[in-house]
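ok so for the tutorial part 2 we go from a plain amino acid sequence to predicted structure tokens. step 1 is just haveing the sequence, like this:
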Amino acid sequence: MDTNSELFNTLKKENMQALKDKDMMKRGILPVVINKCMQQSIELKAASLELTDNDVYQIISKTQKELSDEAELFKKAGRDEKYNELMDQHKYIGGFLPKQLSEDEIKDIINSLDDKSIPNVMKHFKANYQGKCDMKLVNSILKSM
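step 2 — the prediction. this is what the tokens look like for a chain of 145 residues:
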């Protein structure tokens, strides 16, 4: 599969290693992320585009959110073992994301912009900091300023 994403290739290598090591925690989440990446790649290819690391960052972030939501349901149901398993997967795939911007860094970036309107700021962060910050956090910081 053609891709511009080194991260996607890294995920595939990690998956092969997890298979060899019989690491069930990694084998539980890596194929999920890889399949989502492959599906995204097919959709992008239809538009004559290729999968990039930013696309993979988005997929990982979304998968982390899904894991958190699912884990909370298991916690409420008193199934701590399943909760812990999902949170381990959450933490593991989060290791593939770049370092997240702190609230102070986000405020500094917002303050450096000429146009501080919500649409402009959100567009700027989406274009320049995709995968490096939580867009909900950016929005809440912006509204509090």
